[in-house]
Amino acid sequence: MSFHAAPLTGNRTEQYVQLLDQARALMHGERDLVANAANLSALLWHALPDLNWCGFYLFDGTELVVGPFQGLPACIRIPLDKGVCGAAARTRQVQVVRDVNAFEGHIACDSASRSECVVPLVAKDGTLLGVLDLDSPHLARFDDIDARGLEAIGRAWVEAVQ
Ligand code: SME
Prior knowledge:
- The chain is of the alpha+beta class.
- The chain has one domain: GAF domain (Beta-Lactamase, 2-Layer Sandwich), CATH 3.30.450.
- The chain has helices at residues 12-27, 33-47, 83-91, 144-161, and strands spanning 53-59, 64-71, 77-78, 95-97, 115-122, 128-136.
- The chain has a 6-stranded antiparallel beta sheet with strand order 3-2-1-6-5-4, with helices on both faces.
- A hairpin with a 4-residue loop joins β1 and β2.
- α1 packs antiparallel against α2 and α1 (12-27) runs parallel beside α4 (144-161).
- The longest helix has 18 residues, at 144-161.
- It is globular and about 40 Å long.
- The structure holds methionine sulfoxide (SME).
- Methionine sulfoxide is lined by residues 53, 74-75, 78, 83-85, 106-107, 109, 113, 116, 133, 135.
């Protein structure tokens, strides 16, 4: 199989609709959690501009453990009471952090990170599966359009792996 991501067109909301379609196509018929996380990280990394890290932390029942990602090697384990990832996992709310230096407890895996968007990944029965974490070297890279778009993509991953 070779994957050709069609270039995204239209405004950013429309682009996220197209990206969601591409994500669904990529995961179609595959339930393996790591395989889908790996391909989804690669898809997002190539489709979205201005990222320095993009990937998954998977919940092992105690803490978040780094999963498939694109970018520099990262912190391996994140307790739920630490970092933006921990906050997303704990509150089960998407976290958009415009300036990581202003976020108490931010974990600087890559000193280039300036802003982040972290989406919680929660199964239908309420089980925490992990988080989808995107980091940018630019301040305020992520807004509400990204949060909604990435939440929908995170939901598609959860649906695929269940
Ligand atoms: N952004 C995270 C840590 C993980 S890395 O950035 C890859 C946080 O503060 O939760």
